[in-house]
């Protein structure tokens, strides 16, 4: 059984859903709920490590790049 699901959004964040603890490098808790959390993978968010929607400014994170 899967406790945590991480879904990679094409040109968007990592969606983390399930019971897990997310901390920073000093182990300060950033999220400890079962709610859906969107983690930035574009580097453009103003509230890292969370996604704030800034990836819509041209982030190309396609999982299946053209060949
Ligand atoms: S992935 Fe959404 S702001 Fe970076």
Topology:
Blueprint lengths: L3 E5 L5 E5 L3 E2 L5 E3 L5 E3 L28
Antiparallel strand pairs: 1-2, 2-5, 3-4
The structure holds FE2/S2 (inorganic) cluster.
**Can you identify the CATH class?**
Alpha Beta
Low-confidence stretches: none
- Regarding quaternary structure, how should these chains be classified? single chain
Major sheet summary line: 3 strands, antiparallel
State the separation between the terminal residues, measured CA to CA.
Answer: 35 Å
Secondary-structure element string: EEEEE
* Total strands: 5
Helix content: under 10%
The CATH architecture would be 3-Layer(aba) Sandwich
Q: Output the structural class.
A: mainly beta
Shape: globular
Determine the strand fraction and express it as a percent band: 25-35%
- Total separate domains: 1
Mean pLDDT: 91
Strand line-up of the largest beta sheet: 1-2-5
Number of helices: 0
If you compute it from the alpha carbons, what radius of gyration comes out, rounded to the nearest whole angstrom? 13 Å
Bound molecules: FE2/S2 (inorganic) cluster
Descriptive labels:
67 residues, mainly beta, three-stranded antiparallel beta sheet, 27% strand, binds FE2/S2 (inorganic) cluster
Task: Explain this structure.
By secondary structure, the protein is mainly beta. It has a single domain (4-56), classed as Ribosomal Protein L9, domain 1. It is 0% helix and 27% strand. It has strands at residues 4-8, 14-18, 22-23, 29-31, 37-39. The strands form two sheets. It has a three-stranded antiparallel β-sheet, with no helix packed on it. The protein has a two-stranded antiparallel ribbon with strand order 3-4. A hairpin with a 5-residue loop joins strand 1 (4-8) and strand 2 (14-18). The termini are far apart. The model has no long low-confidence stretch (mean pLDDT 91). The site of FE2/S2 (inorganic) cluster has 12 residues, from loops.
């Amino acid at each position: 059984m899967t406790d945590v699901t991480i879904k990679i959004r094409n040109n968007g964040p990592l969606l983390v859903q399930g019971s897990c603890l997310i901390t920073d490098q000093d182990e300060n808790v950033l999220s400890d709920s079962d709610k859906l959390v969107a983690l930035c993978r574009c580097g453009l968010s103003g509230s890292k490590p969370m996604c704030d929607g800034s990836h819509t400014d041209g982030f190309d994170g396609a999982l299946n790049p053209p060949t």
